[in-house]
């Protein structure tokens, strides 16, 4: 998992991001202006920085230039949605540019992509007697191979990446099936039941009443 610097001057947004990062196993450090961010990188090694553009003190574009010698990958999180700003951010060297408001699942997925690109993502997940090797798309229980369909594994991967977060059936459909599902959500329930049975995870994949599901594991 990653050690992530959150540079966001709106405290409520910063706290929410930090809470979600912590829930899935990352660690976060919060900075609320450009000068705090510079001080943070002097005394910490970060795997990633989530960076607002409009900040007190030093703006995000200028900070990115100052971060280059630290080799910290940057994802911009900003309300500045113009094409000019997006192109500028990416040309300056940002890994990604996300417009506010953003969906938590999308943010976590894009963070995972950047961490994997930098070799800072843990591709092996353990829970009880189950080992999931995400890079190999392989699952073992008591060192025995568990056969999952491609769709079962896709659903499992989304649950793991967003562990300890409650996900709606609609979110799971969009993330694991790759499209906005307009009909019955029963297919999610069916696949969840199959995963529970194959992995013996009745007490790991929790049902969130009238909402969806949560993969519940101890925080790392």
TrEMBL record:
Does the keyword section mention Membrane? no
Annotated OmpR/PhoB-type domain ranges read: 122-217
Gene Ontology biological process terms from the UniProt entry: regulation of DNA-templated transcription
Residue ranges the record marks as coiled coil:
none
InterPro entries annotated for this entry?
Answer: CheY-like_superfamily (IPR011006), OmpR/PhoB-type_DNA-bd (IPR001867), Sig_transdc_resp-reg_receiver (IPR001789), WalR-like (IPR039420), WH-like_DNA-bd_sf (IPR036388)
Kindly list the GO CC terms recorded for this protein.
cytosol; protein-DNA complex
Q: Which PROSITE patterns match?
A: OMPR_PHOB, RESPONSE_REGULATORY
Q: Which GO terms describe its molecular function?
A: phosphorelay response regulator activity; transcription cis-regulatory region binding
Its signal peptide is: none
Keywords per UniProt: DNA-binding, Phosphoprotein, Transcription, Transcription regulation, Two-component regulatory system
Q: Which residues bind DNA?
A: 122-217
Q: Pfam families in the record, alphabetically?
A: Response_reg, Trans_reg_C
Q: Which domain of life is it from?
A: Bacteria
Residue numbers carrying 4-aspartylphosphate: 52
Enumerate the spans annotated as Response regulatory domain: 3-115
Presence of keyword Plastid = no
Protein function: May play the central regulatory role in sporulation. It may be an element of the effector pathway responsible for the activation of sporulation genes in response to nutritional stress. Spo0A may act in concert with spo0H (a sigma factor) to control the expression of some genes that are critical to the sporulation process.
Per its record, how is this protein called by name? Stage 0 sporulation protein A homolog
